[in-house]
Write a structure and sequence with these properties.
Layout: H1 11-24, H2 37-44, H3 48-60, E1 64-67, E2 71-74, E3 83-87, H4 90-94, H5 96-99, E4 101-112, H6 114-119, E5 126-136, E6 139-148, H7 150-156, H8 168-176, E7 180-191, H9 194-200, E8 207-217, E9 222-230, E10 235-239, H10 246-249
Parallel strand pairs: 3-10
Antiparallel strand pairs: 1-2, 4-5, 5-6, 6-9, 7-8, 8-9
Length: 262
């Protein structure tokens, strides 16, 4: 198994991703032990440490468990497991639309919002807004509120909408011909109000994961500001972190030693 040179994803993370996909696809019987560490080492041509790291990740996620003297088993999955999103780039964030279904609450329309205007760096409070719920296998797991500055909203046109397995970001870039340079993100938590609770099919006051993203175009001007609320029991958000430079690691040994970059 070879690591990706472009994103430098660690071998144990690649391995856990493969095993997770196989588990979710029902490849392993919960009553039969998983392949042993020796068998997994032969299959993936990986070290014992890498195999153990990968398995420990799946234990923490609740997908597998160890039974003393018997081996490692897949946890019985009586309900749908949380959607896991691994983000390392703007493209990863866009890929959400390819894997889930978006159902709009209403088409694009003009509204007044001070907070959206401030985040979009506008002097006026009028912004274009699109709201909707994302589903995974008919289960609602995220509610989106997407705000556009007037120039972008006018390009999209009143009534613009996105449905089914479409990326809102991808559709916006397609319609406007704009490229995304970067995105700024803030992750926090809050309690679901009545509107969010109804959209996510949870009780009012239930905890929700809040993710704000400000997408900026090639001129570093705001393209859109999105506020997403997710059910924590249906959505896990994972980020891979790497040292930025070798000097920050303070390796101090061989000059040929490799260190991953962000």
């Amino acid at each position: 198994m070879s690591a990706s040179k472009e994103k430098r994803i660690p071998a144990h993370a690649q391995l856990s991703d493969i095993l997770r996909s196989e588990i979710m696809a029902g490849k392993y019987d919960p009553k039969i032990p998983l392949p042993t560490e020796v068998e997994l080492r032969k299959r993936f041509k990986a070290s014992r440490f890498t195999i153990r790291q990968a398995l420990e990740t799946l234990v923490v996620e609740g997908l597998i468990y160890r039974r003393a003297g018997s081996g490692t088993f897949v946890t019985s999955l009586p309900r749908q497991q949380p959607y896991v999103r691994i983000v390392g780039s703007v493209e990863d964030a866009e890929a959400l639309g390819d894997e889930t279904i978006f159902v709009p609450e209403h088409p694009l329309r003009l509204e007044r919002s001070r907070s959206a205007a401030e985040n979009l760096r506008l002097t006026q409070e009028e912004v274009w807004v699109l709201r909707g719920t994302r589903y995974l296998s008919e289960t609602p797991f995220g509610y989106w509120q997407i705000h556009f500055p007037p120039n972008v909203g006018e390009l999209l046109g009143e009534g613009f909408s996105v449905r089914d397995n479409k990326s809102v970001i991808g559709k916006v870039m397609e319609e406007t011909g704009t490229k995304i340079l970067r995105a700024e993100q803030v992750v926090s938590a809050e309690l679901a109000d009545a509107r969010i609770a109804e959209a996510l099919n949870v009780a009012t006051g239930s905890p929700a994961l809040r993710i704000e993203r400000l997408y900026l175009d090639h001129k570093d001007d705001p393209l859109l500001w999105s506020v997403s609320k997710y059910r924590p029991d249906q959505y896990n958000y994972r980020i891979h972190l790497y040292p930025q430079t070798k000097s920050r690691l303070d390796l101090g040994n061989s000059p040929s030693a490799e260190s991953p970059s962000s």
